[in-house]
């Protein structure tokens, strides 16, 4: 009987921990590890949906990335403002998204992309990023994929290759150098590519809920105590 109780509790522990692990694996990271309430950060992703780049209105591209974010419950829950990392003739990418000096930028896997959206060393528009920007809004990787940007490495106009021009510039995902945002030009009317989306400034929430794995262990421990109590109450 004792072996049966231990076996049943063991199976319960494995089942609960397994459920917690699968739940974690299926979710994106919206609050990177190491951040505390009061810290600030931004999130960035590649849209899974694609568009052409014929519009010269930056509002079109901002609305496009906002729709992509709002379709994911975890991102919609942030109530963030989302911007396209793109340049039109009237608005440069660096002005569209804002530098927000000292606010780090992370992808949806918790990887640091840049120290901020500035041009200083470590900034997004310094000529390189710290990890490749490859993950879309649901955590899938886009490697070696073109992304409409219309933008030079410094966040400014790509010398006539802006969004809405005849041949806008695209960036190439997977690159750490300037080609992440300025890879080559494409004909706007003959191709559809995704966009880079970046949030406004976010702050970590104050959490009162235990992590899934912790919850699972609490449940398992309670089950163990229940079975042990029943065993101790058995008549002699």
Number of strands: 8
> What's the CATH class of the largest domain, please?
Alpha Beta
Average residue pLDDT: 83
What's the tally of helices?
Answer: 5
Multimeric organization: single chain
Helix content: 25-40%
Largest sheet: 5 strands, mixed
Strand content: 5-15%
Instruction: Give the helices and strands as they follow along the chain.
Output: HEHHEHEEEEEEH
The main sheet orders its strands as 2-8-1-3-4
Q: Under the CATH scheme, which architecture of the largest domain would be assigned?
A: Roll
**What is the approximate shape?**
globular
Domains, number: 2
Characterise this structure.
- The protein has helices at residues 2-25, 58-70, 73-76, 93-97, 212-232; strands spanning 42-46, 82-84, 105-106, 112-114, 146-148, 169-172, 184-185, 196-199.
- By secondary structure, it is an alpha+beta fold.
- It has a five-stranded mixed sheet with strand order 2-8-1-3-4. Strands 5-6-7 form a three-stranded antiparallel sheet, with no helix packed on it.
- The radius of gyration is 23 Å and the shape is globular.
Question: What topology does this entry show?
Answer:
Layout: H1 2-25, E1 42-46, H2 58-70, H3 73-76, E2 82-84, H4 93-97, E3 105-106, E4 112-114, E5 146-148, E6 169-172, E7 184-185, E8 196-199, H5 212-232
């Amino acid at each position: 009987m004792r072996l049966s109780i231990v076996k049943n509790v063991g199976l319960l522990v494995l089942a609960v921990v397994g459920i917690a692990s699968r739940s974690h694996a299926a979710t994106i990271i919206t609050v990177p590890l190491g951040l505390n309430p009061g810290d600030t950060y931004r999130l960035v992703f590649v849209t899974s949906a694609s568009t052409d780049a014929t519009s010269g209105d930056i509002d079109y591209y901002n609305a496009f990335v906002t729709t992509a974010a709002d379709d994911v419950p975890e991102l919609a829950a942030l109530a963030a403002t989302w911007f396209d990392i793109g340049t039109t003739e009237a608005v440069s990418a660096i002005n569209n998204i804002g530098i927000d000096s000292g606010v780090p930028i992370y992808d949806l896997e918790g990887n640091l992309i840049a120290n901020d959206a500035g041009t200083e060393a470590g900034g997004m528009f310094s000529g390189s990023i710290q990890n490749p920007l490859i993950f879309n809004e649901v955590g899938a990787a886009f490697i070696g994929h073109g992304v409409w940007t219309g933008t030079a490495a410094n966040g400014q106009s790509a010398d006539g290759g802006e969004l809405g021009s005849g041949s806008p510039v695209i960036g190439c995902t997977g690159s750490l150098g300037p080609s992440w945002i300025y890879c080559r030009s494409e004909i706007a009317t003959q191709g559809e590519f995704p966009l880079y989306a970046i949030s406004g400034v976010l702050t970590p929430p104050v959490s009162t809920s235990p992590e899934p794995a912790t919850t699972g262990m609490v449940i398992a421990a309670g089950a163990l105590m229940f079975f042990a109590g029943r065993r101790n109450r058995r008549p002699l």
